[in-house]
Design a protein that fits this description.
The chain is an alpha+beta fold. Helices cover 32% and strands 25% of the residues. The radius of gyration is 21 Å and the shape is globular. It binds adenosine-5'-diphosphate and magnesium ion.
Length: 431
């Protein structure tokens, strides 16, 4: 098959790495890709959101399957465009991708199909929102921009003053632009957080292995939220019983509900959850792989990924068996630029990557990297690399990932030292 992968982050490098190893992969292009994907196929200098040029390229090159990594082109309708052009694509239509692009729409779907989630109200105007915050509201509560806000649109508020500030910033000052012109005010849910991923063609679903990300910048879960500083798989805090509940009470009714409403979902469904005393409840849905969760999942996936992507795109998932997984745990540690998630410099030389022996058990996935005029690898983004390792057990996977991470040097390099440490304590507690 001739494959075009869309995106340029660590997630896409991990997908490219897995796809390139498929015996069915004849050719692989990545648009726009990064220096990591360039080693696995050919990079095409088209931005992920240039729907016209991506569609034209796929047609000219007789691409058999387009795999879309990030949410923006999905929400903009890339898969619809490709389908109109007769090109198979992995990822939801714009109508189905609204599940991530509009938190207000997501809530409507959840409520209509009785999927457990926090109770909520929606506001477009400041005055009624403020009356609620000063009247019947209970604290803490959560204020959310409805639209895509790159992970920066959620504020947890301890009291009415904080909530008023958050709502005013979104509705009046427009801090998130259009994305914040509609706000949700949500009940605060208690309990540990978990993510669940499933492949689906809109009828059949195949849940993937559990994983856990680490969103905050600093050890111990302190500091500002980031795109993700590391991940592990499996996630020992999610029991088999919880996995079954997530599949039955959350993933299946959501997929079938969307289907029922004429928004058939094909691709990766990613549920952000709280494991409350009353069972798992949805915080939000995303419509693509998480980054860096994708990196640990791809390392642990033993089966060929390509048949699953193709089957999701073509509506043939029912015909496939569940995939095989490496039983060993995987850990990924993100190396970020100094200053991230705020301002950070770019163009800083990266040293030591060539000396690392990469293979089945260790991969360094590239994200914010580029090559300078002399062909040297330099930083180009906030999250630069994701060092990913498998180990016989979690301590060994951590040891391998950190040993490799410590051989990679660039000025300002920022990483968390505790990826997987909380999970280790959970495992020790269970033993
Ligand atoms: N109802 C809620 N109760 C408790 N915490 C919440 C709630 N909604 C969101 N959060 C917290 O805020 C984070 C971000 O919210 P989420 O809905 O996942 O938005 P996004 O990922 O788009 O920023 C969650 O991971 C969770 O930690
Ligand atoms: Mg989230």
């Amino acid at each position: 098959m001739r494959i075009l992968l869309v995106g340029s982050g660590g997630r896409e490098h991990a997908l490219a790495w897995k796809i390139a190893r498929s015996p069915d992969c004849e050719r692989l292009w990545t648009a726009p890709g990064n220096p990591g994907t360039a080693e696995l196929g050919e990079n095409v200098p088209i931005p992920a959101t240039d729907l016209d040029r991506i569609t034209a390229f796929a047609r000219e090159q007789k691409v058999d399957l387009v795999v879309v990594g990030p949410e923006d082109p999905l929400a903009a309708g890339l898969v619809d465009r490709l389908q109109e052009a007769g090109i198979a694509a992995f990822g939801p239509s714009a109508a189905a991708a609204e599940l991530e692009a509009s938190k207000a729409f997501c809530k409507e779907i959840l409520v209509r199909h009785r999927v457990p989630t926090a109770s909520y109200r929606v506001y477009k105007d400041l005055n009624p929102a403020v009356s609620y915050l000063e009247g019947g509201a209970r604290y803490p509560l959560v204020v959310k921009a409805s639209g895509l806000a790159a992970g920066k649109g959620v504020v947890i508020c301890e009291d009415a003053a904080a909530a008023r500030r958050a709502v005013r910033a979104m509705l009046e000052d427009g801090v998130h632009g259009e994305a914040g012109r509609t706000v949700l005010i949500e009940e605060f849910l208690q309990g540990p957080e978990a993510s669940a991923f499933a492949l689906t063609d809109g009828r059949t679903i195949i849940p993937l292995e559990t994983c856990q990300d680490h969103k905050q910048l600093l050890d111990g879960g302190r500091g500002p939220n980031t795109g993700g500083m590391g991940a592990i798989s499996p996630n020992p805090t999610v029991s088999q019983r919880t996995r079954d509940a997530i599949e039955r009470q959350i993933l299946l009714p959501t997929v079938h509900g969307l289907n029922h409403e004429g928004r058939r979902f094909r691709g990766i469904l990613f549920a952000g959850l709280k494991l409350t005393p009353a069972g798992p409840k949805v915080l939000e849905f995303n419509v693509r792989f998480g980054d860096p969760e994708c990196q640990v999942l791809m390392m642990r996936l033993r089966s060929d990924l390509l048949p699953y992507l193709r089957a999701c795109a073509l509506g043939e998932l029912e015909e496939l068996e569940a995939p095989e997984w490496d039983l060993r745990p995987a850990v990924t540690v993100v190396l970020a630029s100094g200053g991230y998630p705020g301002e950070y410099p770019k163009g800083i030389p990266i040293q030591g990557l060539d000396e690392i022996e990469q293979g089945e058990d260790l991969q360094v996935f590239q994200a914010g990297t580029t090559r300078d005029g002399d062909g040297r690898l330099v930083t180009a983004g906030g999250r630069v690399l994701a060092v990913t390792a498998l180990g016989e057990d979690l301590p060994q996977a951590r040891e391998r990932a950190y040993a490799a991470a410590d051989r990679i040097r660039f000025e300002g390099r920022t990483l968390r030292r505790d990826i997987g440490r909380a999970a280790l304590s959970t495992l020790e507690g269970m033993a």
